[in-house]
Write a structure and sequence with these properties.
The chain has 227 residues and is an alpha+beta fold. It is built from 9 helices and 6 strands, in the order ααααββαααββααββ. The protein has helices at residues 4-8, 15-26, 33-40, 44-56, 91-103, 109-124, 136-150, 174-179, 181-198, and strands at residues 60-65, 74-79, 154-155, 166-168, 203-213, 216-223. This is ArsR family transcriptional regulator.
Length: 227
Amino acid sequence: MATSQERDGREQLSERRRAVFDAVRAAGAPLGVTEVADQLDVHPNTVRFHLDALVAHGHVERTLEQPSGPGRPRTVYAPQPGMDRGGTRRYRLLAQMLLSQLASTGPGAEAAATDAGRAWGRYLVDQVPPSRELTAEEAVGRLAAMLDDLGFDPQLAGDGEAPGPVRLRHCPFLELAEEHGTIVCPLHLGLMQGALAELRAPVEATGLEPFAEPDACLAHLAPSTAA
């Protein structure tokens, strides 16, 4: 698992390591250890230690520079291509942009969201061998496990013979659902439909009531009508 230093990038570097990184980034061409050491007025072994750490964390790449004449290839360092990974992320804004664009496409937007949800539901649910047939109770249990992993905090009702509604007590996309419910809620229903279809379950998701209760949405299940 990545450490916080690896995840957050440049902002987590020590003062000395950041100085080494900045020297490599500011250069117009790959630098050797001695060149960085001369710039920073520190011992080459210190620079080499920090460069090795920067390579290990993916900030810098190490290559061999072929000599123009006789002699050994020189080891040089250059920044890894890409942006500084320490910046702020705006994924909610990205989601708002995409949802507003989808909503503007007209009457087909809801169906497109449901289809997208179905595809992801098939992908996200735990698979079962083709030879195995699940009971309704087992299928609903796997559905609940998927919803729980996604942050919906599901609560099951009914029994294996007559599955009742699933109470979704938390929405991981709550603010987006409040703003773009006609897109986000059909996507949620599609997730459940796709998951149950992938499981070849004898039960299907027939509807989703957003904010049906003060603290929950209700997903309705029924025996499957598929042959």
